[in-house]
Amino acid sequence: xxxxxxxxxxxxxxxxxxxxxxxxxxxxxxxxxxxxxxxxxxxxxxxxxxxxxxxxxxxxxxxxxxxxxxxxxxxxxxxxxxxxxxxxxxxxxxxxxxxxxxxxxxxxxxxxxxxxxxxxxxxxxxxxxxxxxxxxxxxxxxxxxxxxxxxxxxxxxxxxxxxxxxxxxxxxxxxxxxxxxxxxxxxxxxxxxxxxxxxxxxxxxxxxxxxxxxxx
Length: 216
Fold this sequence. Notes:
The chain is an alpha/beta fold. It is built from ten helices and eight strands. The chain has helices at about 15-30, 45-50, 75-80, 95-105, 120-125, 150-155, 155-165, 180-185, 195-200, 205-215, and strands at about 1-5, 35-40, 55-60, 85-90, 110-115, 135, 170-175, 190-195. The chain has an eight-stranded parallel β-barrel with strand order 1-2-3-4-5-6-7-8. α1 (about 15-30) runs parallel beside α2 (about 45-50). The two termini are about 15 Å apart.
């Protein structure tokens, strides 16, 4: 399983998002590996049209509210527009622990929740008893790294997260760029990875994603 995070790289602006979505769909069909585009609110509807009945996630949800919250992305908005899930508390867009806990209490059953954590300390604090669809371990200092990844630098942490959240599927992200990153993550008990910069900024994103998703 690969979550492909478009973020706001210029390569995904405008028609770039459509191009990347088509790559995700093509590679998923060719390899059989589940690939989920993680997109901005600007691109949700357009990317959903490309992906058909396959999942598309939003990059963030700001809270469960309505009314005077200018520029925010509300949970119910995402649900109505058909987002299949969303990242929560990404290190580049952190939420207060109380907001995360409140979101999980009211999270729609038909949507996947992916709570991003950056340290083992969080698992012993406010995140100790959370039960989202996925827990994503993403050490901030490795995010967008082009040479090192969570799997090469912190494989033991992936295992600790998988052991801690035995009833929740664990993803790993930060610096993911090779098939070995996925193999190590799975060996450590994870079910997949989140990848962004090393796909988005590659000279040939389709080739990089195809190599990541290949089952051979």
